[in-house]
């Protein structure tokens, strides 16, 4: 960082206008001491008094110009540099610092433009590499830097930068606001609230501080209402409260991640799997390591019958927390559901429900068997045989109380027509000969096929 001059260049100390170099030396030593403890106003007052006493004291103009430049009071600084150069034409140090002033002034204007255009990274570069090098005591630049850091979501850096500002001026309202906002976005709401309150005690009508303070109060109120409604079992009201809280500040990710998770859990309880999955995905987009969101999304996917998605989520959760028995139990349920989803749905094949009686299953089977008997479907015999085989296999399982109970529990059942040659209603190839004989036979009969039906 560019430092304030604490002693004069040699050429300045050789001849003062009043012929008394000792007096000038004492003056500039006092100025240097004031600068060291950041008493810039006192230093400027001493220099102004010296200039008023001796308008030809070039060194005083130089020091005044340097202090004003570093405070980024550029127009005043430029006038003092020019006056100094009138008294010391061609002085290289004065010309160099005047050039630095103009660079800093231009860079500060550019940084403000970049802030307006949301180019935060480049704005910070102009401040750090130019403005604060030549104007390290520029409060405007420091506040702008904090604003750029806040906009870029570097919240810890905002806290650090505003801390330096508040050490110099504990009542700086902009610094209190920015520091409060940084704590707010880190979800340290109590500390944020204290900063807003301090600012409002200094200026009760400060519009931005009021907006920030009451915005935070409203967010906390909505969040608490949602949580209270969950505890009371008022889940639909909780959903509305969570959504209302999320709508208040979509950028408050550190807090919204918990709102999304809370909403997801409530939606799972309500059986709204699709909506729950979306909410948990929003939480995971913010924090991909949030275990509970992963588990809840797995539960939500079970509700929507996304068996593979549920297994993937719950397996990932189990890997992150292998000792959690609840997660392992949920994973087992998901794996069982996935396995069951890949087997044939015999109820669907017969067109009956899981609560159908044996008599209803038998009637459905008889109707379909008659419909798809190969001898009755000469023109599409191959398709009919495939359909007939499925119908017979379904009945073999669902028509047997023991096999049906095992099937309903998701257990494996051997020789139930699911492949492997265990069941073949047409016989041949060493398979089982399956003979149907209806009482009284079919009207008109189905000859030649060797199929009878016996119920």
From TrEMBL:
Name under which the protein is recorded: J domain-containing protein
Localisation: Endoplasmic reticulum lumen
Pfam families assigned to the protein according to its UniProt record, in alphabetical order: DnaJ, TPR_2
Leader sequence residues: none
CDD domains with a match to the protein in the record: DnaJ (cd06257)
Record-annotated J domain positions: 345-411
GO cellular component terms attached to this protein's record: endoplasmic reticulum lumen
PANTHER family cross-referenced by the UniProt entry: DNAJ HOMOLOG SUBFAMILY C MEMBER 7 (PTHR45188:SF2), DNAJ PROTEIN P58IPK HOMOLOG (PTHR45188)
Gene3D superfamilies: DnaJ domain, Tetratricopeptide repeat domain
Lineage: superkingdom: Eukaryota
Keywords: Endoplasmic reticulum, Repeat, Signal, TPR repeat
The species this protein was found in: Gossypium klotzschianum
Coarse class of the protein's main subcellular location: endoplasmic reticulum
UniProt cross-references to SMART domains, sorted A to Z: DnaJ (SM00271), TPR (SM00028)
Nucleotide-binding is among the record's keywords: no
């Amino acid at each position: 960082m560019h430092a304030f001059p604490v002693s004069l260049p040699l050429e300045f100390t050789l001849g003062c206008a009043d012929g008394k170099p000792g007096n000038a030396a004492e003056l500039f030593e006092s100025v240097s001491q004031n600068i060291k403890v950041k008493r810039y106003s006192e230093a400027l007052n001493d220099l102004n008094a010296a200039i008023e006493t001796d308008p030809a004291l070039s060194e005083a103009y130089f020091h005044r110009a340097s202090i004003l430049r570093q405070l980024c009071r550029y127009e005043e600084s430029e006038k003092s540099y020019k006056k100094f150069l009138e008294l010391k034409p061609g002085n290289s140090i004065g010309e160099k610092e005047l050039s630095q002033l103009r660079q800093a002034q231009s860079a500060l204007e550019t940084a403000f433009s970049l802030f307006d255009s949301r180019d935060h990274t480049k704005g910070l570069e102009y401040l750090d590499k130019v403005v604060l090098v030549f104007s390290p005591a520029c409060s405007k630049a420091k506040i702008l830097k904090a604003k750029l850091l806040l906009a870029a979501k570097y919240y810890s850096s905002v806290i650090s930068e505003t801390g330096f500002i508040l050490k110099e001026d504990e009542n700086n309202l902009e610094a209190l606001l920015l520091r409060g906002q940084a704590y707010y976005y880190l979800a340290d709401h109590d500390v944020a609230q204290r900063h807003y309150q301090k600012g409002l005690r200094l200026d009760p009508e400060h519009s931005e501080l009021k907006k920030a303070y009451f915005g935070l109060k409203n967010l906390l109120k909505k969040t608490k209402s949602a949580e209270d409604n969950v505890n009371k079992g008022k889940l639909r009201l909780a959903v509305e409260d969570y959504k209302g809280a999320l709508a208040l500040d979509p950028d408050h990710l550190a807090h919204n991640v918990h709102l999304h998770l809370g909403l997801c859990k409530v939606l799972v309880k309500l059986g709204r799997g699709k909506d729950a999955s979306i909410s948990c995905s929003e939480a995971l987009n913010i924090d991909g390591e949030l275990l509970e969101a992963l588990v809840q999304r797995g539960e939500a996917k079970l509700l929507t019958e996304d068996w593979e998605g549920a297994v993937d989520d719950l397996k990932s959760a189990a890997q992150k927390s292998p000792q959690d028995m609840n997660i392992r139990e949920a994973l087992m349920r998901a794996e069982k559901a996935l396995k069951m989803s890949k087997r044939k749905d015999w109820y669907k094949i017969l067109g009956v429900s899981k609560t159908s009686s044996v008599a209803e299953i038998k009637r459905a089977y008889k109707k379909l068997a008659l419909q798809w008997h190969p001898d009755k479907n000469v023109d599409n015999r191959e398709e009919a045989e495939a359909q007939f085989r499925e119908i017979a296999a379904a009945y073999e399982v669902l028509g047997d109380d023991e096999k049906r109970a095992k099937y309903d529990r998701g257990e494996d059942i051997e020789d139930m027509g699911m492949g492997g040659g265990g069941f073949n209603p047409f016989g041949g190839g060493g398979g089982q000969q399956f003979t149907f004989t209806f009482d009284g036979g079919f009207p008109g009969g189905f000859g030649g096929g060797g199929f009878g039906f016996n119920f």
